[in-house]
Amino acid sequence: MNKQQEELRKKSPIQIKNRKAAFEYFFIEEFTAGIVLTGTEIKSIRQGKASLVDTYCTIINGELWVKGMSVSPYFYGSYNNHNQKRDRKLLLTRREINRLASATKQTGYTIVPLLVFIDDKGRAKMDIALCKGKKEFDKRQTLKEKEDRREMDRAMKAF
Question: Which of 29, 86, 106, 134 has fewest C-beta within 10 Å?
Answer without folding.
Answer: 106
